[in-house]
Amino acid sequence: LGAWLPGQVASFSFYWGSIDTYNTIELLDKGGLVYFSQSGATIPPANGDTSDPFTNRRVNFTLTGADRNLGGVRLTSTNKAFEVDDFAFQSAVPEPATWAMMIIGFGAVGTMLRGSRRRTALGLA
Is the pLDDT of residue 49 over 60? Predict the structure, then answer.
């Protein structure tokens, strides 16, 4: 899996089922170079019990600094199984559409406040 990601990523997580020693996750920068690698060998191994939270769990990555320039995630296995599910990514910077909606919202609130002030002043005079 090599999903190339736009912008900056603050964090991401996924369910890693059957954490096995032959499975590896790598984080890639925008140029495709590996800057972090973790194999199932560094996590308690799976025992085949898919309900066991110690061998099948949600794995969370919090990215800071230059690591937020995540370009992709690579999952590799030297065997036939690498079970993952429910990837979730959190953006580090709001999208332009989010900024636009916020600015429009502030403008609308300001316009409403200005209009209500005028009506109140006319009503009191």
Answer: no
